[in-house]
Amino acid sequence: MPDAEDVRRIALSLPDTTEKTAWSMPTFRVAGKMFATLPEEETSLAVRCPKEERDELVLAEPEKFWIARHEAQFAWVRARLAALEDEGELRDILADSWRQAAPTGLLDAHPRLGLPPGR
Hints:
With about 120 residues, this protein is of the alpha+beta class. It is built from four helices and six strands; from the N terminus they run H-E-E-E-E-H-E-E-H-H. A six-stranded antiparallel β-sheet has the order 1-2-3-4-6-5.
């Protein structure tokens, strides 16, 4: 089961990522733009996720994903770290969120980062 230290290690391994405390919690940013946070006493992860995909995730796996009330109007979803399958799933979630926040030049420099094999 992944934990907060796994989140930190994987997030900081992504290009141009930094950690910054905001709202009394660790946040991870690519080129200054936030793509992940560790709220809920670091037992969950909040990441960027398009609203239509977010809603599907929550319906399909409510034991794993949920939408915090104060984030409902934003394109963010929460994931319970204890419910994630393994570090591979965590890495995929973080890389997907990173891609949504990364500037075009960085995406161009790392076009396959986090994409499933064959894409």
